[in-house]
Amino acid sequence: MGSIYLIRHGQASFGADDYDVLSPLGIRQAEVLGAHLAQLGLRLDRCYSGDLRRQQHTAQAALAQFDAAGLGAPAIQIDPAFNEFDADAVIRALLPDLLPQEPEALHVLRNAAANRAEFQRLFSKLVLRWVSGAHDKPGLQSWRDFVEQVRGGLERILAQAESKQNIAVFTSGGTITALLHLVAGIPAESAFGLNWQIVNTSLNRLKFRGNEVTLASFNSHVHLELLKAPELITYR
User: Fold this and answer.
1) For 9, which DSSP code?
2) Is the pLDDT of residue 112 over 90?
3) Is residue 62 within 8 Å of residue 31, measured between CB atoms?
4) Distance between CA 208 and CA 215 in Å, rounded?
5) Which residue from 10, 101, 224, 229 puts its CA 20 to 30 A from 204's CA?
6) What single DSSP character describes residue 234?
């Protein structure tokens, strides 16, 4: 069987003007991941990334460690199917209906870095409304359409894959959640309960034979744990 390694991007710049930039810690996480995989002797046959900067930068930093170890690394193929869902658009579209019940929500969301726990509670509420399909809005990509976008990316990988290949996909937590939903049949609401636990640069492994795909492992971050540096384990 072949393997598809779903890799969440390194820590981005939460609370900054531009979230889509790896923090210095995020770069370090990506380097640690790449060095760990190279030390294991893993040889990648193909590599994909969404077109978000945090995804591509994670791929570049990790794969540089393969080159440094003399293993070589495949070129990064960009497929926007593996982009994260547009969280800002979800917030903008669904927040007005939530405000009567959560009058402080706008202040919290505008000051997310200073209100991390409350931001997470509100964001989780909004995401669950989004995945339910009961609050779809004109111009907002629905959860159903996002899942189909991700399904298309997976199908393109499988169509080009050869047996026993090792394929890396540098992506985001919401995309991994959609794949858990598709591959393991986990209900969307339950999958997003797992989503909040996905560590930056964690490894999630799918095994495939032809078009048959199964989940082999979820959220492995031993490469970070081995360094015994708790600050390397982040979730955003």
Assistant:
1) P
2) no
3) yes
4) 9
5) 229
6) -
What amino acid is encoded at 95 in this protein?
L
Q: What share of the chain is helix, strand, coil (3-state, %, to 5)?
A: 50, 15, 35
State how beta strands 2-8 and 203-209 pair.
antiparallel
Tokens of 137: 């809005």
In terms of Cα–Cα distance, which of 60, 42, 40, 59 is closest to 164?
Answer: 42
Structure-token pair, residue 131: 């995945």
Would you call 120 exposed, middle or buried from its count of C-beta atoms within 10 A (0-12, 13-18, 19+)? middle
Quote the pTM value. 0.93
CA atoms of 236 and 233, how far apart (whole Å): 10
- pLDDT tops 80 at residue 16: no
Number of H helices, E strands in the chain: 9, 6
The C-alpha atoms of residue 35 and residue 43 are separated, in whole angstroms, by 12
Q: Can you tell me the distance from the alpha carbon of 47 to that of 42, in angstroms, rounded to the nearest whole number?
A: 13
